[in-house]
Amino acid sequence: MSNRPRAGVRSAPKKAAPRRNTTKPTRSGRNKPLLKVPRERMDTWVLRHIQVMAGSLGRLFKQPVASLLTATVIGIALALPTSMYLLVDNARDLVSEWQSQGEIWLYMKPNVSDLRASQIAAELEARGDVASTRLITREQAKALFIEHSNLGSAMDLLSDNPLPAAIVLTPTELNPAVVDGILWHVREMPQVDLAKTDREWIERLQAIIDLARTFVWIIILALCFGVTIIVGNTIRLDIENHRQEIIVTKLVGGTDGFVRRPFLYIGYWYGLGGGFIALIFVGLAVAFLQKPFNNVLGLFESSYQLSWLSISDCLVLLTSGTLLGWIGSWIGVSKHLRDIEPT
Amino acid sequence: MCAAQTIEFHQVNKRYESGHQALSNLSFQMHAKEMAFLTGHSGAGKSTLLKLIALIERATTGSVVIDGQNLNAMGRRHIPFLRRSIGLIFQDHQLLHDRSVFDNIALPLIIAGMPPAKISPLVLAALEKVGLEGRDKVRPIMLSGGEQQRVGIARALVGRPKVLLADEPTGNLDPELSREIMQLFVDYHLEGNTVLIATHDLDLVANMGKRVLTLEGGNLVQDIPAVGEVTPIEEDSIHTLGEGHE
């Protein structure tokens, strides 16, 4: 075994001279046209980044179970706020859809006849801000009452019909100023007993949803923090496992940036992988929820459908996952890299 | 150029946190393109001295100046660039066992941002120089201790640093191989580079006819100039003794 190498060493002095000749031109390459060197360095830099990127992915695939577990934990941490966000977002859309059906109901005073009520409806329809009116006569009101309540038989006991006539107004526009303008006008009319819209409870619902949204944002922030900690801690263990590599790299002149690079890419992959897993989880959750959710909405006579994440939402999720992974590894690396120095 | 000092130690003290005084009031200079041996018993401070040059450790007091740069003033960010100009050879090789011999030797060039096309011929030439041609694809773990040492030497030489520091480079080698490795260092020195080698192999050192610095308990107790060379005696090199001079 040792014979061959020794022969090589003996021949080394002779070989030294031509070798030097081949090396020198590359070292004095700086004298070449100025543009050439940066271009070459740039290409090398890009190539090294791609190599490190692929290399760090390879490193993760060497321990598939551990890597998958870490990515899954990140995925769950990302999927949780994403699905909550999705639900709140759907609720918001739903409420705004309801709002767009906004009608104004005018209940006439009991002494207003159906005829008078129809005259009022015609007057109101002449207004520019009223799109249409629909008259519900006293008889129709009674019929509706019997149809929609269990108290139909009670109505039979009454000799008179106690229900007033009503007018349903649809405003031309649904902006609050227009609706308020109509309300202000009709409430002044002596024949009108009560004018109401479904706006109040929609506003209340809206407020609750806004509160939920804020709450979801707090959870998103907390879990983002959690993801960076998960990645940071995983990277810390990874750094510990590559102690020797870090020391050797530093000994032969590797900068902090060079040593940091593979760990940053590992964080990047964890984040991206976690993002994808989160997408799968959210997808599954929506798939399972869609039917019961739509059933519930069906009961409310709404045709609204639970929507999936949009393409841009998916991109935001993946980007935030990647970014969080990167930030987490950056924090982990910065904190622990300084501790590892050759001695 | 010859007059320029590459390595200067001025009243350097190094005390470790444990309280161990590794170097005491040490002063010496090496001019550019000089070759010297550093001898002494284990624990005499040889490794510490080399570590101070590569800023693996910092001097407690006094100053270490490399190529006119005072290392005391050198910030953490600049250390990598200092180390790129120094080839380091370690007693324990400091190789990466999860990478091939080729990748180990290529590491300094990759770090320096050299294009891949230029790396390959340099690495193969360095392997040939240390007599390990054809072993580029194996892992260092498959090699004997002596072969691993030579991989470490190839890695130190591949970037052609102006300064080469070696800590017991022949520790694991048989006498014949040790001489060949020493000859490799002499050749590198003759190519115009500064070479400082720490070794306790006094027989080997005696035959080389180079300058010999002897440490004892952290003090420089002897500075024998190279055969046929006159080293200028510096005012502050207090510990230079006459008996070794010829």
Q: Structural class of chain B, please?
A: alpha/beta
State the end-to-end CA separation of chain B: 25 Å
User: How would the global form of chain A be characterised?
Assistant: elongated
Q: What is the number of strand segments of chain B?
A: 10
Taken as a percent bin, the fraction of beta residues of chain A is: 5-15%
Biggest beta-sheet profile of chain A:
4 strands, antiparallel
Q: How many domains make up the coordinates of chain A? A: 2
Oligomer: heterodimer
Radius of gyration of chain B: 18 Å
Instruction: Look at the structure and give the mean pLDDT of chain B.
Output: 86
- CATH class value of the largest domain in chain B: Alpha Beta
How would you characterize the overall build of this protein?
The complex is a heterodimer of chains A (343) and B (246). Chain A has 343 residues and is an alpha+beta fold. Chain A has two domains: 50-98 and 203-337, no CATH class; 103-197, 2-Layer Sandwich (Alpha-Beta Plaits). Helices cover 74% and strands 7% of the residues of chain A. Chain A is built from eleven helices and four strands; from the N terminus they run αααβαβααβαβαααα. Chain A has a four-stranded antiparallel sheet. Chain A starts with a helix and ends in a 6-residue tail after the last helix. By secondary structure, chain B is α/β, with parallel strands linked by helices. Chain B has two domains: 1-85 and 161-246, Rossmann fold (3-Layer(aba) Sandwich), CATH 3.40.50.300; 95-160, no CATH class. Chain B has seven helices and ten strands. In chain B, strands 6-7-8-3-9-10 form a six-stranded mixed sheet, sandwiched between helices. In chain B, strands 2-1-4-5 form a four-stranded antiparallel sheet, with helices on one face. In chain B, α3 (101-111) packs across α4 and α4 (116-129) crosses α5 (145-158). Chain B is globular, with a radius of gyration of 18 Å. The two termini of chain B are 25 Å apart. Residues 232-246 of chain B have low confidence and may be disordered. Chains A and B meet through α1, α2 and α9 of A and α2, α3, α4, α5 and α6 of B.
